[in-house]
Amino acid sequence: MKLTEWMQKNTYHHSCFWDVEELVRQKNSQKLRIALAFPTLNEEATIGKEVLVAKGEMMDRYPLLDEIAVIDSGSTDRTRQVAEQFGAKTFLASECLPQLGEFRGKGENLWKTLYLMEGDIVLWLDADIKNIHPKFVSGLLGPLIYRPEITFVKAFYERPLTLEGGVRTGGGGRVTEVLVRPLFNLFYPELAGLIQPLSGEYAGRREILEQIPFSIGYGVETGMLIDIYRRGGLKCMAQVDLDQRVHRNQSTVALGRMAFGILQAFFRKIEQEEGRGIQNISEYLPILMRQVKVDGSDYGLNEYSISEKERPPMISIEEYCQKWGRNG
Amino acid sequence: MRQEAEARLRDLHTRVLSNLIMLGQIPAPTGDEKERGKYLKERFTALGLEDISEDTFGNVFARRPGAQGRKTLALFAGIDTVFPKEVGYEYDVTPTQVIGPGVSYDSLAASSLISIAEFFTEWDRPLKDDILFVGLARCADQADQEGMRKFLESPLSRRIDGALMLESIGLGRLSYFSFGALKFDLTIDLPQGQLGRVGVSRSSAIEILADAVNLIQGIELPRHPKAGLNLGVIEGGESHEFWATKAKLGAEIRSESTEILAGVEEEVDEIALHLGSYYGCKASLRKFGRRTTAGLRFTHPIVRAIRRLLHGLDILPAPGPDTMAGSLAMAAGIPTVTLGLTQGTRAGKRSIIEIEPIHTGLLQVILALHQLGDLLE
Lengths: 328, 377
Hints:
The complex is a heterodimer of chains A (328) and B (377). Chain A has helices at 3-10, 20-29, 44-61, 79-85, 106-116, 135-146, 174-187, 206-209, 220-232, 252-271, 281-284, 318-324; strands at residues 11-13, 34-40, 67-72, 89-92, 121-124, 152-158, 161-163, 166-168, 202-205, 214-215, 237-244, 247-248, 288-295, 298-305, 310-311.
């Protein structure tokens, strides 16, 4: 399938899936179970509303979701209490599979979702969405429910950034446009058709998600896309326009650290591929990210240790296979 | 029955709040309520209500037939807010509160139309009477309650035997009477660059307005029947160095007596005419928010029943004069009681409602709807 053809056939608007009752009927006829998970770290300001809307609209009113959970990285605010109050199960990532060591990061929480929740389809939403709407759920699930060959669905949207004094339309996606899309064009040209490869909202079938490794930090989205692409090609992926997502803006230096993590994950992916001529490069990459700080005439460096470790495919974990009766 | 209703409401708790978020986050400045109206209609349709419609002013209607259909009870709520679209309607939800523009004025009341319809759709105790759910557009005071006024002119309003008007906050309020009232803006305009023609000295618009304030305060108000005058808004001028060419006073007159109200209104008219001719300025009056004295007696069976009901729910009833929309319905001959749904504040974009009392607020409405038809015999 050519990229332009894929974009035409596999790019949807959420309104294609407005009929939630029909989605529920289709889901039931396929005997699917669907899990929604929020990876969190100190998100008490927004998690309550997200859980509330997802549960109220997509679980209680229309039984599209079977479980809602927060997988938390050890928030020091009331994230877990708030989520629980509004009806989500809550898990502390560090208490899940502790015998396998402890890492901290969004990817770690996503990986552990597969162990903690039983859905045949797993949907992840970032926990900082201010304009949460049921379309985030129905839109991402629609292609998976209606098209059995689709195994992974990614969101895209307009991203007005909340700034002091108002809302700025457009913008956002800086890391995508200056880093990830150029890298995809160089190494995985077909993935360049993904409109927002770094969006934090996506859904996939368990049978593919359990087969892929998970980067534990910033690189999780990029790594996941590459691994799913390698296994099923572009034809098993779809993307959905969710119109608009209002969220916190991140500073450029914070995005710099994100880019550093993504690059580590990216190099790990390409060194795993034969024929690239790039081997063992990740062994030599430093994990120290230095960023300049200027305070008047005082110049210095902030140093961050960012090590983009990777969890193996969940299907290779004995505890997982035992818990869910899977064959590793 | 109360225990059953309470248990059912507990089951609906999450949906009650998600209804609020879903509806309340749709921008609905007065006069531009279309999207909210559309959402209400969609929800009413999904709930299987009948006769779902919208009039040309944006009021939205839906009927839930009762088992006997002897009476029609209306449930009113305003669907507009005083905030422009650009303000950003995203709510914050904490464990105890929902915070955001319009949440307490009056998005909770509007979303409760859906929640109550949902309650009755899923409850196995049918109501005897029909309920007409009415989402009122242009309900803000500045819009002069145009939505309610137009609804009351429609044939549909003549089928209503009794009504509850929902307000988001003020749980415990029991409003069943209204004073006559009239709001007005008195605006003084001087032609650009000119000052008031004077008998005694030159006068700016602000000075003329100060004279107006003195004259209005000089209007004699009787102690009985009760009457009052509130000078609530004043604005004018542009800078310290320049003479003001425009100034405005906003005020409200209230009285138990329609005649007293008319007398005060006439004096205000005369004051405006006097200022215009004395100062050679344009003194214009914009009158709005007119309502007549109306209401139920405190011994009316509905009032008694709801008072008892509130006591039974451990809510101290707080009788007080009605809001304008409720007053208009009463003046049109519809026995109407206004009830608040929870506690909260109106604080601009950061208005607040308390989550926990909403349960009791909705319970009072549900129990009241069960009793109302019989009391209207």
